[in-house]
Amino acid sequence: MRTTVAASDPSLPAPANSAGPTKTVVKKLTILETILQILQKDGIGAFWSGIGPALVLVSNPVLQFSLFEQLKNKILASRVGGPGLTDLEFFWLGAVSKLFATTITYPYLTVKARMQAGSSGHQYNSTLDGLQQTIASEGVAGLYRGIVSKLIQSVATAAILFVSQPANGCKPRPTLVGANLRGFDS
Question: How is 85-143 classified by DSSP, letter by letter?
């Protein structure tokens, strides 16, 4: 959205090749002027454009934490009265849950990135249109283009995050540091 207004300055002399003064002065709009301009040009709905895609992205952490909790509870249920989860188990649960969530939501991220780029030859009317066009022209694999680097980044981050968090309702967990890993006394 352009937030500047051009105005002519009549006090300046006219250039030789024009009929009158033409120097353009750029005035930045205030917040109120910008709000009014958006309202006049695009209507009240413009303030909420893009909220749908943002709400779809909320599903990634919802999927991640839901799967994490389900897997954690299954493991703990199999150890009734036994030890809590180890750091290594938290690490793998964090990695697996993020892998699942990212794999499910990545097609949406692909279309969203293409829509934001705009000039990359992809013209979509909506996210659904983008999904349909991508599948029609590139197949389902087109929705997952670039996922490897995203998975490396997000899965590693989630795994480290989950292993570094407190036990969150679990019994105090044994740590890898100072643990008796090979049967020798520590």
Answer: --HHHHHHHHHHHHHHHHHHHHHHHHHHHHHHH-SSS---SSHHHHHHHHHHHH-GGGG
Whether 25 contacts 6, CB under 8 Å? yes
pTM: 0.63
- Residue entry with tokens 């992809």: 122
Q: Phi, psi (5° rounding) for residue 8?
A: -85, 145
All structural domains of the chain with their residue ranges: 4-47, 50-164
**Angular region, 178: left φ>0, alpha ψ -120 to 50, beta rest:** left
pLDDT, one tens digit per residue, over 85-107 is 888 999 999 999 999 999 999 99
What are 125-155's pLDDT values in tens digits? 888 888 999 999 999 999 999 999 999 999 9
- Distance between CA atoms of 5 and 97, rounded to whole angstroms? 50
